[in-house]
Design a protein that fits this description.
single chain, alpha+beta, Sulfite Oxidase, Chain A, domain 2, seven-stranded mixed beta sheet, five-stranded mixed beta sheet, 11 helices, 22% helix, binds ligand MTE
Length: 336
């Protein structure tokens, strides 16, 4: 099959959402025209053409309706089989079945099953605090008002395992620009959803729910920091933090907070859930750093899921060129 230029490929979930949007405004002709100029991911791998049958997926288009059907449409898609270092992507199966999502369980292999009963649609994210233009964004708005793009990133968990994941999402900076941080703003605090009735792990009082994380404002504005709304060209699977999560690839995975409902811009350094639980083990910065060991294990090497041996961990998870200047002059042994 001829490769399709990246510019012509629209991730499946954006395609579905745009079509819903067009249908939502009552323009069947508009939906058809849009379908004709965007290649649905399904067509890449199956040869199907949604342009030829514009209503074929309309039952899947409502965000408050039948989204699981949208998830089942087409094959997982990524524009490349490797990251920029030449390392193979982990499979969709691996990425969705080995998860840290303590709201459901501490057992990585049981998250996917326990997350089935979670209902991520409809969804809203409020953005408040030291901003000139506080707003609450619906998921539809986040998907349609911000340009969605693929980002293939390594995810390095503090527990010393890693994966390569083809996310779909948009830069954090665009959302922050939209709310216009005030001059005194220094940090961004993120809060995950609190729904013990749907999240079995939240009925466990060992953890101070909801899950909270934070970044310095300039870290959040770095072009590598994204909000992921999808993965492998599909809507974000429940086990990976549906419907929207942070991905900060140069930091340990616990900073990449899932299922976000609240974002607050502040002048106070937020205390994250893990720092709150064990400040000597999990600092605010949590930059991937092979020279600073966890008190209970080495951070010098990692196990890539799907591989048998270990590989060396890279400073800033291999993203030093893009992010090292954020920490110029800082002692990274003390600010772990
Ligand atoms: N976000 C929430 N809300 N709850 C969690 O338990 N676990 C974190 C992070 N985000 C977590 C979370 C950890 S420790 C890691 S390594 C990554 O999610 C794992 O992301 P993945 O399951 O998509 O690979």
């Amino acid at each position: 099959m001829m490769p399709i230029p990246r510019s012509e490929i629209t991730p499946e979930h954006i395609f579905l959402n745009r079509r819903r949007f067009m249908i939502g405004v009552g323009s069947a002709a508009g939906a058809l025209a849009l379908a004709a100029c965007t290649a649905p991911i399904g067509s890449v791998s199956t040869g199907e053409s949604a342009a030829a049958s514009p209503d074929a997926t309309s039952a899947s288009l409502s965000l408050d309706g039948d989204l699981p059907a949208a998830l089942a449409y087409g094959d997982p898609y990524a524009s490349s089989t490797t990251d920029e270092l030449g390392d193979s992507l982990n499979s969709f199966q691996e990425i969705t079945n080995y998860n840290n999502f303590y709201e459901f369980t501490t057992n990585k292999q049981q998250v996917a099953q326990l997350a089935e009963q979670f209902e991520p649609y409809p969804w809203e994210v409020s953005v408040t605090g030291l901003v000139k233009n506080p707003q609450t964004f619906s998921l539809e708005t986040l998907l349609t008002d911000f340009p969605q793009e693929e980002r293939i990133y390594r995810l390095r968990c503090v527990e010393a395992w890693s994966m390569v994941i083809p996310w779909v999402g948009f830069p954090m900076s665009l959302l922050l620009d939209a709310v216009e941080p005030a001059a005194e703003a220094k940090y961004v605090k993120f809060t995950s959803v609190l729904r013990p009735e749907q999240m079995a792990g939240q009925r466990n009082s060992r953890f101070p729910w909801p899950y909270v994380e934070g970044l310095r404002l300039d870290e959040a504005m770095n072009p590598l920091a994204i909000f992921a709304t999808g993965m492998y060209g599909k809507l974000l699977p429940k086990s990976n933090g549906a419907p929207i999560r942070a991905v900060i690839p140069w930091k340990y995975g616990f900073k990449s907070i899932k299922s976000i409902v609240k974002i607050e811009v502040t002048d106070i350094m937020p205390t994250s859930t893990w720092t709150n639980l064990a400040a000597n083990e999990y600092g605010f910065y949590a930059n991937v750093n092979p020279t600073v060991n966890h008190p209970r294990w080495s951070q010098g090497t990692e196990r890539r899921i799907g591989e048998s041996g270990r590989r060396n961990t890279l400073m800033f998870n291999g993203y030093g060129d893009e992010v090292a200047d954020l920490y110029e002059g800082m002692d990274l042994q003390a600010n772990y």
